[in-house]
Request: fold
Amino acid sequence: MEKYEFTEETLDWKGKTLHRIRALRDFGDVKAGDIGCWIEKEKNLSHNGDCWIYDSAKVYGSAIVCDSAKICDSTKICGSAKVYDSTKICGSACINSDRDYMIINPIGSRNGATTAFRTLEGTKVQCGCFYGSISEFEEKVKETHGDNQYAKEYLAFIELLKVRFKDYEN
Reply:
């Protein structure tokens, strides 16, 4: 069963026509009638799962959002990126390929997903209600978890993020 439709509202974006979407049924935290963001074509957002695109985010080109992924704020997903699982990408993220973000799930005391992604302001990390740079995330982990098992998990992930996003950290 389809979960969204195109509204009549369109947006010319970088030579592409993007369409505003509207939910046709309830799923996740989305209610029937809720207005979503902008997609170029139906292949950009799966009708399965709880994935949704919020706020003023834009998904176009060959990009795909599926599973329980949430795309928020002024994020732009394009190119050959596939955003899936429990990924949450927000802020001013710029995802052009699968190498522009990284997710680990489950991790930490919440057994939740933690996502890092490129933005116009540098690499950002989204973990529960935390949103900030890799170094800010590292400080928060040490403050919250000290030297326990959860800290060790997060700090190992942080080291991987430093390698992946070494040229993109602010």
The two ends are 43 Å apart (CA to CA). Helices lie at 134-145, 149-164. Residues 135 and 151 are 14 Å apart (CA to CA). The chain has a mean pLDDT of 93.
